[in-house]
Design brief:
By secondary structure, the chain is mostly helical. The chain has helices at residues 5-34, 39-66, 73-102. Helix 1 (5-34) runs antiparallel to helix 2 and helix 2 (39-66) runs antiparallel to helix 3.
Length: 107
């Protein structure tokens, strides 16, 4: 599968917008659920976990990029980039499923 630079940019923008929207809503919902006395602690936990998740994600993406296959640096990078996008797609799917069950309206 060959993706043009504009397709990669579009996929990344869609991911970034979705991640930002979902994280902000999750944080707002969680902060209202913990109560006023624990808001500062919950906010610190969210920010810490966001930074930790970003560093783990960067390490995983770097590993995928380095483990690409092919002859030459460009082919290895292209293969690794495709693996990163597949992995991110799986994570996005897991995220959608978990959000569906986590925020299901109560009857």
């Amino acid at each position: 599968m060959n993706m043009s630079p504009m397709m990669i940019l579009g996929a990344y923008l869609l991911f970034a917008i979705g991640m930002t929207m979902s994280f902000a809503n999750t944080m707002t919902y969680a902060l209202t659920a913990v109560g006023r006395e624990s808001e500062a602690d919950a906010n610190a936990w969210f920010n810490t976990l966001q930074q930790f998740g970003g560093s783990i994600g960067t390490a995983i993406a770097s590993s995928f990029l380095a483990s690409g296959s092919g002859h030459g640096a460009a082919a290895v990078m292209q293969s690794g980039t495709q693996h990163v996008f597949i992995f991110m797609g799986v994570l996005i799917l897991i995220n959608f499923i978990s959000y569906h069950y986590t925020f299901k309206p109560t009857k």
